[in-house]
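Example for tutorial group B:
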């Protein structure tokens, strides 16, 4: 035994200070390897749709209803099963309208405990305790144990029930049971990017994730945009504001993050008082700060012009981004009412730009400069936004590999011939996995060194032509705002999106990222699957799975559905395709949200913990403990002395 190994085993002996304790831990961890693999859910492109997101979490993409069927089969009617499901999904709402007699409580609690027992059957008691609410952990554990026992424990179980009711904690206890069921039905949640924009409650979605255990995240382009805005980058702030104005999401800004956008509204009203700004009518005005469509259009025009100026300044600061084609304010011919984009000249919809100096079009006016400073300060001073940016940085990454699944949001930038595109920054060139890792390092550097030169890179990840998170040659915001001809606003997708139909593309990416195993898949989002036009989410014989199914209301007309959840459990990998629904109808009628299930892979044998990444880690720990046990028995390591 060399000195390094001895030092390591001495440290390990501090935790397992005797032969019985080390041996007992080997027994425990060896047994865990034989448990069925727990359930993982993969979701992407949530885009602030809190009600849809939380309903899917609460019903576990239909898995909770299947647990109810497993418990009660034909002993409950469909209406009774739906009522129980609703009590699990929305306990506070259902309790408010229930006839809460002692008999009702006994029936509801007994049913909920039965579902708890079935839902937690893959867990050790120790792991189950980590999911239990602290205040009621002992009672719930005892109820689960007693409810599945023989008649000798039934009186004990009934006593627990009656005491919960008699002490007046039954409502709170039902809430705790419902939360426990949803959290153990899905052991691990993977978010494959894009929490922000479109929907109006991104901050509530992130707060919900922060309350859950075993959540990991890969960043999407909308996430890095808001992370950059939280760091105070002016171009990111302008883009985040423009997206919020366009989709009427002032709730996220003002109520969610306490960001004061009134100065922007006042500025827009003053600068464009005589301008209807017809070309800038927002997509919807719901939840906007004003119901006046003209005022909303003025706000959108004001922040759009500021955005184009700030982006122009940024592009000039970073010639290495090679985004000179985005410099379009200086291509406007005010006399001819045209703008040149590339080699083509288009009529421009709006030439009334009072804050733009044709001689220096990217310079902010004094009023704009003051406004931008106020807005950036507001983003930097939002405590909740800063907390969420830190959370996304701590729990997020550019890519992840989990149990043979390679997760990233957008794409691996490629050339048309299937080779990985080389992208240069500074004196280095990156491609494939190295590009992802460079981008992640740059994001983390910006988090802790918020100089403009660092935070600018998050804007590049949002919209840059070789950004793995963007996957397009550009984001044509200027063209869509100012040019009627749809040809001008065409965004060309990365060749990746043509190549992902071929298994050899997936194999090349697996090799690049070091993904091994019998059940390998690439899981990404970003590009909505147009189910209404016959497009399918599964590519290359199941090697690529695109799980952006349009959870956001803004995309549902395009996709025809309400998102996907990819589910991996011990028996299979399947895709849950959610249909559009009204959360208020769900709670009123008792109907569960309909999800169409497609089995992607049926495992020949039930997978166990030993078949997962966690199982590999456990085997390593067991090997270390076996070395410690051997060292104890050979006298090479002495049990540590208790100094107390």
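The residue assignment follows.
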């Amino acid at each position: 035994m060399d000195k390094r190994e001895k030092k390591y085993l001495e440290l390990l002996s501090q935790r397992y200070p005797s032969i019985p304790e080390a041996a007992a831990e080997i027994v425990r961890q060896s047994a865990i390897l034989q448990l069925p693999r727990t359930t993982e859910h993969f979701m992407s492109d949530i885009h602030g749709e809190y009600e849809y997101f939380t309903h899917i979490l609460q019903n576990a993409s239909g898995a909770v209803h299947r647990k109810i069927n497993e418990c009660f089969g034909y002993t409950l009617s469909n209406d009774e099963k739906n009522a129980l499901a609703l009590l699990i999904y929305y306990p506070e709402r259902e309790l408010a309208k229930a006839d809460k007699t002692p008999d009702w409580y006994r029936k509801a609690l007994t049913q909920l405990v039965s579902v708890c027992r079935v839902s937690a059957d893959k867990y050790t008691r120790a792991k189950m305790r980590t999911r239990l609410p602290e205040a009621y952990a002992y009672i719930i554990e005892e109820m689960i144990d007693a409810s599945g026992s023989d008649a000798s424990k039934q009186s004990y179980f009934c006593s627990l029930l009656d005491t919960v009711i008699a002490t007046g904690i039954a409502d709170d206890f039902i809430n705790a049971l419902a939360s426990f069921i949803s959290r153990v039905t899905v052991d691990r949640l993977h978010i494959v990017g894009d929490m922000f924009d479109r929907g109006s409650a991104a901050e509530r979605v992130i707060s919900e994730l922060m309350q859950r255990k075993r959540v990991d995240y890969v960043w999407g382009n909308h996430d890095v945009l808001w992370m950059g805005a939280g760091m105070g980058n002016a171009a990111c702030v302008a883009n985040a504001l423009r997206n919020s104005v366009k989709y009427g999401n002032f709730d996220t800004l003002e109520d969610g993050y306490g960001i004061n956008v009134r100065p922007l509204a006042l500025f827009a009203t003053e600068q464009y008082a005589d301008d209807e700004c017809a070309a800038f009518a927002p997509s919807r005005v719901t939840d906007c700060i004003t119901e006046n469509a003209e005022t909303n259009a003025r706000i959108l025009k004001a922040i759009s012009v500021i955005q184009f100026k700030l982006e122009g300044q940024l592009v000039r600061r970073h010639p290495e981004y090679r985004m000179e084609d985005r410099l379009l304010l200086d291509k406007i011919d005010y006399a001819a009412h045209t703008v040149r984009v590339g080699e083509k000249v288009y009529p421009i919809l709006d030439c009334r730009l009072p804050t733009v100096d044709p001689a220096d079009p990217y310079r902010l006016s004094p009023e704009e400069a003051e406004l931008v400073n106020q807005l950036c300060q507001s983003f930097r001073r939002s405590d909740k936004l800063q907390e969420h940016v830190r959370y996304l940085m701590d729990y997020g990454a550019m890519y992840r590999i989990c149990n043979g699944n390679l997760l990233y949001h957008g794409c691996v930038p490629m050339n048309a011939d299937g080779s990985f595109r080389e992208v240069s920054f500074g004196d280095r060139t990156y491609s494939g996995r190295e590009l992802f890792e460079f981008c992640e390092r740059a994001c983390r550097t910006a988090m802790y060194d918020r100089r403009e030169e660092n935070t600018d890179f998050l804007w590049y990840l949002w919209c840059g032509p070789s950004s793995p998170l963007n996957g397009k040659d550009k984001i044509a915001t200027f063209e869509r705002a100012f040019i009627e001809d749809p040809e001008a606003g065409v965004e060309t997708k990365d060749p990746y999106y043509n190549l992902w139909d071929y298994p050899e593309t997936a194999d090349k990416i697996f090799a690049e990222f070091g993904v091994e195993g019998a059940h390998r898949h690439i899981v990404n989002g970003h590009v909505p699957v147009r189910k209404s036009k016959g497009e399918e989410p599964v590519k290359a014989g199941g090697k690529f799975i695109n799980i952006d199914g349009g959870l956001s209301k803004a995309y549902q007309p395009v996709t025809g559905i309400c998102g996907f959840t990819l589910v991996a459990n011990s028996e299979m990998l399947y895709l849950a395709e959610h249909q559009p629904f009204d959360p208020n109808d769900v709670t009123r009628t008792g109907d569960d949200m309909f999800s169409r299930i497609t089995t992607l892979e049926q495992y020949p044998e039930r997978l166990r913990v030993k078949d997962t990444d966690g199982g590999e880690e456990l085997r390593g720990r067991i090997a270390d403990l076996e070395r410690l046990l051997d060292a104890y028995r050979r006298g090479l390591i002495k049990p540590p002395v208790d100094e107390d």
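Residues 285-289 have pLDDT under 50 and may be disordered. Compare this with the pattern of hydrophobic and polar residues in the output above.
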